[in-house]
Amino acid sequence: MATKKINLVVADMGYGHQRAAYPLLYLSDNETICINDYPGIPAWEKEYWIKSLNSYEKISRLKKIPVFGTFVFWVMNSFQKIKPFYPFRDLSEQTIQQKFYLRSIKAGLGKDLIEKLNPSGLPFLTTFFVAAYVAEYHNYKGDIYCVVCDSDVSRAWAPLDPKNSRIKYLLPSEKVKERLLMYGVKPENIIVTGFPLPQENIGENKEILEKDLVRRVMALDKAGKYGEYYDFLSEKFSTDFLNKKTSPISITFAVGGAGAQKEIGAIILEKLAMKIKAGEFRLNLVAGNRPEVKKYFEEQMEINGVKENDGIKIIFSPEKIDYFKAFNLCLKETDILWTKPSELSFYTALGLPIIISSPVGSQEDFNRDWLISLGAGIDSLVPEYVNEWLPDMLESGQLVRAAVDGFLNAEQMGAYNIEKIINK
Question: Which residue did the predictor score with more confidence, 97 or 2?
Fold first, then answer.
């Protein structure tokens, strides 16, 4: 029987906070507590969070509107903008964004939730920085952990009063550790664990990950230059498996939680339709839990005269947990992940080369830089010409190199490392 080891607290805002929590569900007896939508949440708090989410999603979609949309997004992004990394300096002063949240917390935001959870005595683990503020301000009795979801973060992620805070931060990378030190977080409260990735894609001894990596490298290695990367695994897998060249190449295109950039998926579908029908490529269009995005992709399939049995699949479920499960299963057969540099950037650790579409927000600019620095991400060229440049990338070996670099240079065991910390 499962034993609940943590109170796992998330926010229902986009996918990032809940995707980071999904691999940790086994520590919470498969329960997440949503700070902005839990049973018994006070009506005024529910309204507060609905307004916040609606504003964010509207502004994210407005970004594609010339001039006006760009300006509105710029204003929002400026409040959460991450300052240049160098020089190392004191950035511990509270921001306008934090003062805004602090005002609401003093007025009682989150107090009801903490009163409900306090009797459990369990560690409070969250993937949303405001939930960490709430737990500390309202005197949560157990340990408080905050999982950081990006490779660099704004001041908002650090505590309101970092010098006196007891919040412990679980980080995806070393660089964000240096950033939190700038924000005044105490070194003893900073632990680099790696981003929590789905265990069904890894395995306790990386056996699932390695098998999927071998298949992917063999599929992407058109010039046969990377044989050494699956030769070193040859003892684990059968000769038949290793001799099998996988075709067609499978591309997975993922939109953001607000449905941003779905038009890029439509362009990929249109430009690769003939190659998909010819069996050169497969395309997975990730609609997440957005029915309007699913409908949009279905309409694009009809316009382009392609069907699911031609090699097209839409990844969708109305429930986010079910969507995450379907997405993770899809990744096992994916050769190329095409996405904006969100929290999905860390999935390159699975040996996935990432084609990077335009970042949305300051944190995604830094995620892009992180991917490029690893050699695991490649900026998308003009999507309208994908039928020309994608085959060239494959032939050059650029994508197989990115797959191997992601596997070698990014941390895969974040969820397992977090469990060890919780169990100490």
Answer: 97
Count Cβ atoms below 10 Å from residue 259 Cβ, excluding itself.
16
Mean pLDDT estimate for the chain: 89
Whether cis (ω within 30° of 0) applies to the bond prior to 248 is yes
Is the distance from CB of 276 to CB of 247 less than 8 angstroms?
no
Q: How far is CA 21 from CA 28, 62, 196, in A?
A: 10, 28, 8
State CA 178 to chain mean position distance.
21
Q: How would DSSP label each residue in 311-366?
A: TEEEEE-SSHHHHHHHHHHHHHT-SEEEE-SSGGGGGGGGT--EEE----SHHHHH
> Among 401, 356, 407, 373, which residue's Cα sits nearest to residue 220?
401
Query: What pTM value is reported for the model?
Result: 0.90
Determine the Cα–Cα distance for residues 68 and 59; give it in Å rounded to an integer.
Answer: 11
Q: Which two tokens stand for residue 137?
A: 């301000």
Distance (Å, whole) CA 64 – CA 55 = 16
What ranges do the domains of the chain cover?
7-192, 199-409
How far from the centroid of its chain's Cα atoms is residue 400's Cα?
22
pLDDT computed for residue 64 by the predictor: 55
pLDDT category at 68 given cuts 50, 70, 90 is very low
Domain 199-409 annotated CATH 3.40.50.2000: yes
For residue 68, the number of C-alpha atoms closer than 13 Å in the C-beta half-sphere is 4
* Integer Cα distance of 277 and 344 in angstroms: 28
CA distance 335 to 16: 22
DSSP annotation string for 241-288: HHHPPP-SEEEEEE--TT-TTHHHHHHHHHHHHHHHHTTSEEEEEEEE
**Which among 80, 82, 83, 84 is positioned nearest to 56, based on CA atoms?**
80
Quote the tokens at residue 7: 């109170």
Q: Are 421 and 231 in contact (CB under 8 A)?
A: no
Sign, Cα dihedral of 223, 356, 170, 126: negative
Of 166-170, 219-223, 235-239, give the range with the top mean pLDDT.
166-170
Instruction: Identify the H or E element spanning 392.
Output: helix 386-396
| Tokens matching residue 268 | 């990929």
